[in-house]
Specification:
It holds the Pfam family HTH_1. It comes from Streptomyces boncukensis. One of its GO terms (molecular function) is transcription cis-regulatory region binding. This is LysR family transcriptional regulator. The strands form three sheets. Strands 3, 4, 5, 6, 9, 10 and 11 form a seven-stranded mixed beta sheet that branches. The protein has a two-stranded antiparallel ribbon with strand order 1-2. A hairpin with a 2-residue loop joins strand 1 and strand 2. Helix 3 crosses helix 6. It contains 14 helices and eleven strands. Helices cover about 50% and strands about 20% of the residues. It is an alpha/beta fold.
Length: about 325
């Protein structure tokens, strides 16, 4: 029995087979060298190939010599009339062409995947941001990325966090107390909550500010639990007896404003949402002392997955326009 067929020899061969893949990188020239060789074969000139591939002629000559040493065969015959392939060089060139074509196909496939990713953007935003800030950002994004299709889902801050956690959105915007669990984020703006009432409400005619306990003990027109507005209000009034049960609990800022304007009761809404109503005196701002009603607005995304492509561009736009 020959030594090659013994169990000991087979065992000895196993580590070499196991470690064969890393050695391949040392035996196969890099793509740049193979592309240079293909250019020499096509042009019949090392100088012409150097110009085409963007390197100097000495660098191209050195690269060919290095490849010859790496492969252990002579690839080119050089003469004053130019360079031509040896028989071994012609065979290596045919193999090199397949490698380069495969690499180009690989690059084209990855580019197609990247283009597919970059051609769409899924955004989830809480109500106030979606209504009063996001439209301007999306108009600016359309200018810089006209081919990007944007889909928008709107909900409260808890719903936005859920969409991102489930992989149903690429970038989100929330208004709560902090970055939701499992997400990364950055503050993009700051906002204040205003207590507002219709001009006919007693609070609209009072001379002094509200005390926190009075605000906490009054039934208000409010956004639903899970909204950023509600989170901030709950925290602000926790030390003053807690928030009374809502007079009305509504799922959008527009609905809250409409109820307050109709005289249903005082409400708490974002400063961003009531500029027009305050200017027209359809609503009156009611000052409150001794309580913090400000909040940060945040862009958020799945933890560890930094925004890329159009999501990154939209994030940049929000921060540039603060």
């Amino acid at each position: 029995m020959s030594s090659r067929s013994t169990p000991h020899a087979a065992a000895a061969d196993a580590p070499r087979a196991e470690h064969g893949a890393p050695g391949l990188a040392h035996r196969v020239p890099d793509l740049g060298a193979l592309q240079l060789l293909l250019a020499v074969a096509r042009l019949g000139s090392l100088g012409g190939a150097a110009r085409e591939t963007g390197v100097s002629q000495p660098a191209a000559s050195g690269r060919i010599r290095s490849m010859e040493r790496q492969l252990g065969v002579t690839l080119l015959e050089r003469s004053p009339r130019g360079s031509r392939l040896t028989e071994a060089g012609a065979l290596v060139t045919d193999w090199a062409r397949r490698i380069v074509e495969s690499a180009e196909a690989f690059d084209a496939g990855v580019s197609a995947l990247r283009d597919q990713r970059d051609s769409r953007l899924r955004v989830a935003a809480s109500m106030t941001i979606a209504e009063y800030l996001l439209p301007g950002w999306l108009i600016a994004l359309r200018t810089s990325r006209p081919g990007t299709a944007v889909s928008l889902r709107v909900g409260n801050s808890a719903a936005v966090a859920g969409l991102l956690a489930d992989g149903q959105a690429d970038l989100g915007f929330v208004e709560g107390l902090g970055t939701p669990s499992g997400l990364d984020g950055v503050v993009i703006a700051h906002d204040r909550l205003f207590v507002v009432a219709a001009p006919g409400h007693p609070w609209a005619r009072r001379r002094g500010p509200l005390a926190p306990a009075e605000l906490a003990g009054t039934r208000l027109v409010l956004r639903e639990t899970g909204s950023g507005t509600r989170q901030v209000l709950d925290r602000a009034l926790a030390g003053h007896g807690g928030l009374a049960p809502p007079l009305l609990e509504l799922a959008s800022t527009t609905a809250v404003k409409a109820a307050a304007v109709s005289g249903a009761g005082p409400a708490v809404v974002s400063e961003l949402a009531v500029g027009e109503e305050l200017a027209a005196r359809r609503l009156v701002r009611v000052p409150v002392e001794g309580v913090e009603l400000s909040r940060a607005l945040r862009a958020v995304w799945p933890r560890g997955a930094r925004p890329a492509g159009p999501a990154r561009d939209l994030l940049s736009l929000t921060r540039a326009r603060r």
